[in-house]
Amino acid sequence: MMNGLMFQGFEWYIPDDGNYYKDLKKKLVDLKRIGVTSVWLPPVCKATGTNDTGYGIYDLYDLGEFDQKGSVRTKYGPREELLDLIHAIHEEGMHVYADVVLNHKAGADFEEEFEAVKVDRNDRTKDIEKPKKIKAWTGFNFPGRNGKYSEFTWNYNHFSGVDYDTLTGDTGIYRILGENKGWNWGVSHDNGNFDYLMFADIDHAHPDVKEELKRWIDWFIDELHLDGIRFDAVKHIDSAFLEELSNHIKERMGDEFYLLGEYWEHGIKNNTKFMKSTKFNMDLFDVGLHFSLYNASKDAENYDLRNLFEETITKENPPMSVTFVDNHDSEPGQSLESYVEPWFKEIAYGIILLRKDGYPCVFYGDYYGIGGEFMIEPHKDQIDILALIRKNHAYGEQDDYFKEKDLIGWVRNGNEDHPGKCAVVISTMEKKYISMFMGENQSGRIFRDFTGNCEDQVTVNEEGYGDFPAEAGSISVWLENEIDLG
Ligand code: CA
């Protein structure tokens, strides 16, 4: 079986020109060539405006079809072009994952008055005022869609909190009061209770909400012929609801249907708790590994590479781990900015693409560059080489040589379909060598570094060992000399 490779098909600063679907379609040839097996699309539902990336979601049923929020199209384009792109991705034999934002809704159609209580921003279990009447944007009736696909309309009963009272102009966090109302508790306990993130926070304990979202997701999966879903901000969504929803999807679509969650937290403890509570239905991004890569790129000489995988999902629960270097939230100027330094990008991609564990995800911004005011150069050439090696030459068991603080390496031993050996060395401070065992049957074979970072050649000795180097601050990937990467 071919190694899986996900591509995050967008970054934050993609231009708001409505041409995104057409542009990405032209890029599929690049992705197919390097062995991408699935494409993660941005949130495709109508958001607060065309300048919204889609996370400020307004109408789940508007995929760029109705004149709402100032346009028919979304930031990315009209519905027909989305369907056309998805068809093209499938034609190339790749899977399509959609980005689903269920934590909140934004850009309501009208205001409502209701009882609420202001809570302490840093401890949302603490009320800091007496309950009072507030007025907030919680009414959604989607006049532009006029009941097509769903008659469901939203009001304050379907939400658990808001962060703006238009009566007073106050921007505190308010918990909505009423029968059976309160924060959902199957969420992160950061800040006491992390149910609330932004906009009008959906109450996932409300029976009508649960039914409507299940009905919507069936419609959405069928409408777009999806192969998987990436759930946004699951740290803030009741895990009891996500368990119910994920069971519902798996029952209808089968176990092959891919589910992935974004649980943004370094440590392993709460990630594991979340995976358990959603019955291991949902893989998670390995945020811990992202921070290891980020810290290694920042701390250079002080970082101990042997600790890269400590407290990571990749180490603790490898089949559930989606590894990534950066994403649309960690890129410069964004809410979770923690952008891996350019000198370390190639190394970081070597780490996620060439090791046995983890389902890696290449970020659009790293591959094609980042636009807007930041204008960050792409690493396409480097990633192309590493991804092609992943596609054809990084298979089988793995022997680790995590030798020194600034020097690690590993060997992939190949398998029946891909019998070749692949040796990787990373050295952060100076040129160093690791003697690694390639097998006695490899004696006399000559290896070279396909990244081009090191010009040496290595001949495997009679005992089956090779002395593989990496230059200062770089990665070297050693394959047999005559291999053509294609
Ligand atoms: Ca929430």
What can you see in these coordinates?
Strands 1-2-5-13-14-15-16-17 form an eight-stranded parallel β-barrel. Strands 6, 7, 8, 9, 10, 11 and 12 form a seven-stranded antiparallel beta sheet that branches. The chain is α/β, with parallel strands linked by helices. The chain is 24% helix and 24% strand. It is built from ten helices and 25 strands. Strand 14, helix 5 and strand 15 form a beta-alpha-beta unit. The relative contact order is 0.10. It binds calcium ion (CA). The site of calcium ion has 6 residues, from loops.
The description of the largest β-sheet is: 8 strands, parallel, barrel
Principal-axes shape call: elongated
User: How far apart are the termini?
Assistant: 19 Å
- Radius of gyration (CA) equals 24 Å
| Count of individual beta strands | 25
CATH superfamily of the largest domain: Glycosidases
Q: Any idea what the CATH architecture of the largest domain is?
A: Alpha-Beta Barrel
Helix share, percent:
10-25%
Could you tell me the strand content as a percent range? Answer: 15-25%
Report the CATH C-level class of the largest domain: Alpha Beta
Could you name the ranges where pLDDT drops below 50 across 5 or more consecutive residues? Answer: none
- Largest sheet, order of strands side by side? 1-2-5-13-14-15-16-17
> Could you say which structural class the secondary elements and strand pairing correspond to?
alpha/beta
- Helix count from the secondary structure assignment: 10
Mean pLDDT: 97
CATH topology of the largest domain: TIM Barrel
Domain count: 3
List the ligand species.
calcium ion
